[in-house]
Amino acid sequence: MASFDLDPGQQDRFSAIVRDAGAIALRYFKPGDQTGAKVTWKGDGSPVTEADYAVNAYLETNLRALWPEAAWLSEESADDPARLQARQVIIVDPIDGTRGFARGDRNWCVSVALVEAGRPVRAVVHAPANAETFVAQAGRGAWLNGKPLSIPDCDELHPNLRVSAPTHVAREIRDAGVVLDFRPKIPSLALRITAVASGTYDCCLATRDSNDWDLAAADLVLQEAGGLLAGADGQSLVYNRSETCHGLLTATARALQPKFLEAVLRADAWHR
Fold it and tell me: Long-range contacts for 268-271 (Cβ within 8 Å, ≥24 apart)?
């Protein structure tokens, strides 16, 4: 059975698995305070906690049982190149926004997508500390806590557009003469993107070095809500390549993307 033909019961099981994984992470989370989980540091200087590993193990056991023929790609698992030959791959970030999670910021999530032919077809982004669950199915829509999402069809930049971007990039965009309503950057990239899908923000920007696991699930939520996550070429992203890292990214209403990208490229900071 192709993933597009998932019956409702299987889709419900997918969502339940991700929510249960979020409950595991919550055991280690302390709002406004340092996590009780052990924190270690990877070679690239990014943190990982025992909560990340516990969630990853739970997801791998249960999602592999749900989709036994699918390959696996996770931030917290060793990469297996065999995934490149697989028709389906499960792409996972056990805790997206680990830095925020570790210091008590509520804006973190469990992010999972099922990808076919380079594009996500099923997705759940669950933010347990915010009591938010985003679900999307390719061609069938996106929902936040069961309510359908639909982005207004905006195609013009104006000063009231709410934008999430790194502080140094926001400053240089302003210096380039583009006036927008810049808001604080949400620690989780997946939640920055879904914030555009839900209408909390109108645009968001990621400068570089995001990976498939940060993006795939939120990408589908945004797409099904009527938005576009795109690279500097203006095109949708392709997942499950040998190189999982991506460059400059914008998330906007589909019609707004070219003008927002043009404004971003006027700044000098986005590539640093």
Answer: 268/172, 268/176, 269/166, 269/168, 269/169, 269/171, 269/172, 269/207, 270/169, 270/172, 270/205, 270/207, 271/207, 271/208
Instruction: Give, in degrees to the nearest 5, the angle at Cα 68 between 123 and 26.
Output: 50
Q: Any bridge partners for residue 205, and if so which?
A: 250
Q: Do 122 and 245 reside in the same domain of the chain?
A: no
> HSE (CB half, 13 Å, CA atoms) of 222?
31
Query: H or E segment at 193?
Result: helix 189-198
**Cβ neighbours for 9, distance < 8 A, ≥ 6 positions apart:** none
The boundaries of the domain holding residue 246 are 162-265
Determine, yes or no, domain membership for 154.
no
Condensed to tens digits (0 to 9), the pLDDT of residues 96-153 reads 999 999 999 999 999 999 999 999 999 999 999 999 999 999 999 999 999 999 998 8
The pLDDT, as a whole number, for residue 44 is 82
Amino acid at 266: R
Place of tokens 């924190």: 39
Q: Is residue 157 part of a domain?
A: no
Task: Give me the CATH number covering residue 41.
Answer: 3.30.540.10
d(CA 126, CA 109) in angstroms, rounded, equals 5
- Please indicate, yes or no, whether residues 39 and 62 belong to a single structural domain of this protein: yes
Please give the model's pTM, rounded to 2 decimal places: 0.94
**If 0-12 CB within 10 Å is exposed, 13-18 middle and 19+ buried, where does residue 46 land?**
exposed
- Per-residue pLDDT band for 189 (boundaries 50, 70, 90) equals very high
